Every structure is written in structure tokens, then in C-alpha cells.
């Protein structure tokens, strides 16, 4: 915060959460500056002819930065409830449950809207600033105060009484508005930078998949003669590559779950891989481990290293196909399959093939009508897989490993940039709402031409 000035004088407060504050600021509680009201319990039917079916906000609608109206539900409100619980522009809505304390400012996004009892509404008294309160909520949330008073070891509830009693700093009303305007402008700049980095990560992900897809389908020689694969989404492949159905070139192995009632089967040193362990290209360990006795007494079996592990039953198959190559001997649970090519190079190639053609394979492999998303082994076995000669396959793998390492480093750099920007955002809000920096002389710069150019190039 080196570019910002401090206030001329500070005084101590009596609250552990708060640092010394400017001498002209006051301390108190949120209830001294805002009226806090809890919303209405769910009501699925009208109780009187005067009740009306109207939209309301749930905690799921409340996000930092704004209200999410992608899914808005309705319930019945009486005339008295409509008078007491109708949202007005400038109200701060605060999550009572779930991610307690998460807040947003209502901007009149709907002509008429109310809120249920998973939300507290804070309405400014007099000239107090609702946006200053919003940033204050962001500060005390990041400082951990809300989690402490809500006792997150149980189901947390940030009740109206707790909101009312939350410590609050009172700059003069005009100063509150100035702090909020400063933070609106500065956090918007930071958010734009974060959005650029997030877009870069998405572009790197798309480029990564495109490079994989091309390499495992077309090879590295652009002048190689091509032939029709016979598979519409696969298109042409190099003429000298073999095309084989998976069931003729690999062996499928399943898994199982040892009895949970037998403690002697659990806590051993043999990895027991389940979908929750499938988070990277390689598997060398698992959250759960079993014993040799468990293998003898169940349908699971040892899977040697260098095989392709695939999740075949899980809700995650709605959007992705987790695959990995195991680096050590493992066992599997019943939601997994191992595909054994008896050749680690072919296993690596096939894992890339799945990653590069994930969207098409999801459509081909998923079992229709299943209550839980699953892969049909018949469809899996009938998959036509292109296979280059061994030396060319090795070249492709070396190329992909080199390219993907570049993308990994760029993604890591962008992810770190996002972390630093978010840390700076949090620190800036904290400094402004606690008076560590004096922004009374701040004026919004005229950046409209620059921002328009940035938007055009985004």
C-alpha cells in the first residue's frame, strides 16, 4: 500500500479484530448503522386469498460482486410480509447459512423481489453507505471473524442477532461513500486483470487439448499420406497407422470393495484407487489402502504399473473422463477399470487419445438410461484406436510431454498471478475500511477511452 497515504492521527480500539483507527472514526456494531432483518421461512401454499406468489432470493443467489439470478424461485407472501420483506435498491443481502457472511448489494435487478430465511437483509439508516458495509463484510469475512462467531465445527448460522452485533467502524457518511467509490474503482480494475488471466488459462486448456487431439490423430508429419478411419469424428489418420478395436488390443480388468465390516482389510499399504484419486495423469498413491487379506477375500485384484486407469461409474462422467497411468502396483474399486496394453508406451498414447477426444468419447461410451453416469464396456471395447508404429509413437509422446510442460508452466504462472491479485484485492479492502489508508482526496480518473480500448481488445 506504499502509494497511499495514512491518516494524520490514529487511536486504539478495544476490539482484537480492529487495528488503531483514525481519530475521527467511531466504533460500534452493524445495528447502529443498519437495520437487519431475517427473511421468511419457505411457504409452498397460499394461506389467504391475499397471498401472492412472488420471487425471492436464496443463499445460493448471493455472490460476492453481485446477485446471481440464473435460478430464482417463488413462494407465497402475505400483504404484511410484502411490506416488510421487499428488497429495495441499496439493501445488503447477507448469507445466514452455508458460506456464512457472503454478501451482495441489491441493485434492483428484478422489479419486485423478496428473501427467505437463509438471508439477512441490512438496510442503511440515514446516510450510511450500503457499499461500505458490503466491503466491511468482505473484510471481516476474510479476517475470519464470521467463521469464529458462527462456530464452523457445527452447522454455521450467521443469525440476524449475530449480524447486528458484529463490530463496525463508522467513518463520517461522506467518507464511507468515498471509500466505497474508491474500492469500486480499484477492485474493478483488479477483477478485470483476474478475468484476463482466467481467460488465458481457458485458452491454454483449449490449446492443450487441440495439440493432443491433432498429435494422436494426425501425427507430427504434415506430409504423411492419409486414409479414412471409418469413424466420423476421428476423420483421417496417417495411412501407415493401424486402426484397432480396443477389445482386440488390450485386456480389461475391474475392481471391487473389500468388506467394510472387516477392519483387518483396511489400513494396509496397497493403494485402493477410486474416482476421488483420479486427479492427475499419473497415480502413485490413493486416499484408501487395503491389505493382502482384502485382496484374497474380495473381487479386487492387483494391477501392475503402466496400465490405463479409467473411471467407469461416477457423476463426473457427465463432463469429463478421468484417466491416468498407474506408476505403482494398485488395486481398484468397482467404479474403475484398468486397460492393460502390456506396453507402457501404448498406455501413455491411449491416455492422451482419451484426453484429446474426450467430448466425442463421452458421447460414444456413456450408458444410456443409467441412474448414475457410467461407461458401457461394450462401447469402450468397440472403440477404434489409431496406433502408430512404436518409434513414431515414442516421438509423439516426447513431443506432447514437451508441449504440455510449456502449457503447464504458463498455466501455473497465470494461476499464481490470480492468487497475487486476489491477495492484493483483499489487502486493499482491509486497508481502506479500517483506515490504514486515507482516500479522502481520491478522485476517479478519466479512464473511459483506455477502458474502451481494453474492452475492444479483450
UniProtKB/TrEMBL annotation:
<dbReference type="InterPro" id="IPR051212">
    <property type="entry name" value="Type-I_RE_S_subunit"/>
</dbReference>
<comment type="similarity">
    <text>Belongs to the type-I restriction system S methylase family.</text>
</comment>
<keyword id="KW-0238">DNA-binding</keyword>
<feature type="domain" description="Type I restriction modification DNA specificity">
    <location>
        <begin position="79"/>
        <end position="196"/>
    </location>
</feature>
<dbReference type="InterPro" id="IPR000055">
    <property type="entry name" value="Restrct_endonuc_typeI_TRD"/>
</dbReference>
<dbReference type="GO" id="GO:0009307">
    <property type="term" value="P:DNA restriction-modification system"/>
</dbReference>
<feature type="domain" description="Type I restriction modification DNA specificity">
    <location>
        <begin position="252"/>
        <end position="401"/>
    </location>
</feature>
<dbReference type="InterPro" id="IPR044946">
    <property type="entry name" value="Restrct_endonuc_typeI_TRD_sf"/>
</dbReference>
<dbReference type="GO" id="GO:0003677">
    <property type="term" value="F:DNA binding"/>
</dbReference>
<keyword id="KW-0680">Restriction system</keyword>
<dbReference type="Pfam" id="PF01420">
    <property type="entry name" value="Methylase_S"/>
</dbReference>
<protein>
    <submittedName>
        <fullName>Type I restriction-modification system, S subunit</fullName>
    </submittedName>
</protein>
